Amino acid sequence: MIPDDAGSNVSTPEPNPSRSLSRFRIRSRLHHHGSLRAQLALWQAGILALTLVFIALFTFILLKQFLNSRADTRLNSYAETTALGVKEILAQYAAIHPGKELSKDPDKQTTYRTFVNNSDLQSLGRYVQVIDRTNHVVAYSDALQTNHLPPSMEALTAGLAGQTSLRTEASMGKYPIRIVTVPVRFQGGTPFLVEVGASVEGVEEALWRATIVLLVLTPSVFVITLVGGWLLVGKALRPVDEMTQAALSIESNRLNTRLSPAETDNEIGRLALALNGMIARLERSFQQIERFSADASHELKTPLTSIRGEAEVALMSDLTTEQYKSTLRSIVEETERLTIIVNNLLVLARADANQIKMRQDPIALHEVVLASFEQLAGMAFRKNITLDIGEMDEVTIAGDAIWIQQLITNLLKNAINYTPEGGDVTLGLRLDSSSGSDVARIYISDTGPGIPAEHVPHLFDRFYRVDSGRSRDQGGTGLGLNIARWIVESHRGTIEVQTEPGRGSTFTAVLPV
Predict the structure, then answer these.
(1) DSSP type of residue 54
(2) One-character DSSP codes across 226-281
(3) What is the mean pLDDT of residues 377-397?
(4) CA distances (Å), 95 to each of 102, 117, 133, 190, 483, in order?
(5) What whole-number distance in Å separates Cα of residue 200 and Cα of residue 74?
(6) Nearest alpha carbon to residue 179 among 157, 153, 149, 137
(7) Which residues contact 327 (CB under 8 A, 6 or more apart)?
(8) Confidence tier at 26 by pLDDT (50, 70, 90)
């Protein structure tokens, strides 16, 4: 059995004058809405600025806490050392003068002066004084000869309770003074307290230098990183720009153009491959549409030309009544063929638009097969072709009986049309469970000339014919097999063909049960 086959007469679409305007509008939108590079740079700048400001503030706070903590630790250590020295002096005095109180000794000032060692290098830059329980200064360093450290009742109370305290005084000069008060514990009491102070000038200067460094370093890092990010983003997005320009140059008559990414193992490369796949599918679709349009025009032109020729001959000639009837019969035949083509085109158009809904009713498939057999038995008889019934298993499937019958009719007509006079066509139905699930196999075998192997992949294409002239003479439209495939696939089935030139063909529709 030879399927409907049409010659491919592909027409080239004329260029659309509005395409250049469309491409200009696309480019304008790209420039008006800003580039992705600029948007990424702005986001990077914002995030980077916030990050650098946070790091600078965090660094400054940590540095300030560290410097103050270290200064307090050293100040407290020196105060503890001084208090220990005072305690040793008190112990020596008690050993030399047992039972005698230092506060009642007329020469106590001599002993008090030994409390503070002004020759100690560690005392440089520090203010040291020793006070008694009444907050009276009994000894002090050389730096406090004119002004003593300001008294503090809170520090005195804490010290007498045996606690060390820290405070800041801002009334002694340009920079505040940090003061630590340490109690001197001796013989179960606190006769004296040691107060050591130091200016925070060093800490302030260190923080100021750190602030200058951060103020210079932060904007520098921001600018360097921003420029580097801008350049890197530009380099990363350059393939996207190239792909965009290439995509803008692709039109319906240039769908053979493909995007060529520099690398294919990253996101941009995979995007280019996906776009190339989409363009390839579009190219195939456009080629099918162009071929379909050309073939449809040719198929419709043939009967119209025949009708016009018959009518013109009848108008220009004086014919007999019988001749006029013959002409009209020819016109009717061409009109019927034209109607079939139009109806088939409408079916395929509705199928492509998913406007045809297949019913899923339980149908006795063997009854539908027998009905198709009876419908075409007369056609086979008129061509002197033997139409036989092969296997006929009783099978019930879910489907649309009308379209299933159309499927069988199309395949049977195709077999009868291309089987020579005196040949055989066999129609059968077999239930097959060999694949693990039940399927119904509707097969139509013929003893026709068979189909060359190079034509088999295209048998179900629209308007495809192996022998276009012979197919038209036999009434084929080139759409029957394409409609048959659509019906089978709409029922979640497949259609197969086995053929050998000179030995006939067998078409099998496989439907799930």
Answers:
(1) H
(2) HHHHHHHHHHHHHHHHHHHHHHHT--TT-TT-----S-SSSHHHHHHHHHHHHHHH
(3) 93
(4) 12, 21, 22, 18, 124
(5) 13
(6) 149
(7) 310, 311, 313, 314, 319
(8) very low
